[in-house]
Amino acid sequence: MALNKQTILAQLLAHRSVRQFKKKPLTTQQVETLVEAAQHASTSTFSQQYSIISVTDPKVLTEIAEITGHSWLLNSGHYFVMVADQFRNFQIAKRNNADPFILHTTDKFLAAVFDAAIATENIMIAAESMGLGATIMGSILNDSNRMIQLLSLPELTFPLLGIAIGYPDDEPELKPRLPQAMMHFNNQYHLTPEMPNLVDYDQLLAEYYQSRSTHRRAETFSHHIISELSRDRRVRSDLLHNIKAQGFLVD
Amino acid sequence: MALNKQTILAQLLAHRSVRQFKKKPLTTQQVETLVEAAQHASTSTFSQQYSIISVTDPKVLTEIAEITGHSWLLNSGHYFVMVADQFRNFQIAKRNNADPFILHTTDKFLAAVFDAAIATENIMIAAESMGLGATIMGSILNDSNRMIQLLSLPELTFPLLGIAIGYPDDEPELKPRLPQAMMHFNNQYHLTPEMPNLVDYDQLLAEYYQSRSTHRRAETFSHHIISELSRDRRVRSDLLHNIKAQGFLVD
């Protein structure tokens, strides 16, 4: 147990997103192991409300590189798309003449998102334990409609996250996280608007960005958040519409 | 690395939800370690869009037991609530006179849900590596409005998942998961409506439910899903409204 604790905690605390890969594809067995690890994560009401799509077709990968703006994914050893999925359970409902209404609700959409995101993290951890590196990519949502078409996603499914995995070809530094006092509270949420710890954290992150080996820049956490907010509002403005168009979020 | 792989994969594949705990609270240090593990998970655009609330007040725990219908959580050694959080970044926007519009979007709500769910899984894995057991509880959403009041959650935050953690006082059997052919696809989603593997999986799960040491019942996976669908439609029917009332999902 002590060994487990030491090994596993050390890995969790050492996580970095890896975006540069050696040109070496994962084996079928490695991919199956990663999917198996995903499957053993907790799933809401044991309903297993997600699916995984392995994208191996270079044409589709090229399209995903365009959608996400991240052509480095083309060098990954394997690419997964994690999909919220109530379509499978909808088929089970149909076979048994059960009313599928519940599957369309906001509640079941959220449950599917939880399932997919939790399974995503198991893939990350399994991959890192196998000496692989990976990055979770929310940027597939830049064009969710195109992703739905590319992957032939039926009603009651929705693409959520990409995962690019491979043999690491760089060693990014560890990015300092928020002080716990700013994100962990007792019994009640109580972030003071002044956020006295933010100045120190801004400074800490600025030092990280200045001292790291590549992509050095002058940026605090506050700068980073503000630059996120300045994004073009039209990007992903179709998201709510597209989720509803797939049959989710009925009132 | 071989040791890592063996240790970590073995733990991931051995996950069970634990709902019976010895009466022994976690130490402050254990709680901090779990939060630290959560923090080191990937976070969308490094925006750290979630917060964690440790619920230690017995009155609040009793209310959560009522909301979830799971009084066994009162015996856990620690209870976390994972919260989607754009309020902190909203404060950063305000201090810097930046337009916070983006924080209200469906996209940023989803990003916060991803962050919180991914961090949740890191807590689960860290806890298990420390010899603890845990269950993720979506049932706090049975009354999200009451949860918001109980935890004093401000605008642009939303409670998503509870986590009951403690020293295990039972050893649940491992529940068989769907065959990979039913949930892992290549390049395109292609679940055939006939689902030829479902009969075997239904049988496998029925055998599991019949043979396990407690809570034996005659139930296939199909039965299980159908019984989920028969839930009262009014349960959680306020969810979309409550998410919007917290300032999320603007079109």
UniProtKB/TrEMBL annotation, chains A, B:
Keywords carried by this UniProt record: Flavoprotein, FMN, NADP, Oxidoreductase
Pfam families referenced in this protein's UniProt entry, alphabetically: Nitroreductase (PF00881)
Domain Nitroreductase: 14-167
SUPFAM superfamilies assigned: FMN-dependent nitroreductase-like (SSF55469)
InterPro entries according to UniProt: Flavin_OxRdtase_Frp, Nitroreductase, Nitroreductase-like
Family of the protein in this entry: Belongs to the flavin oxidoreductase frp family.
Designated name of the protein: NADPH-dependent oxidoreductase
Lineage summary: Bacteria, Bacillati, Bacillota, Bacilli, Lactobacillales
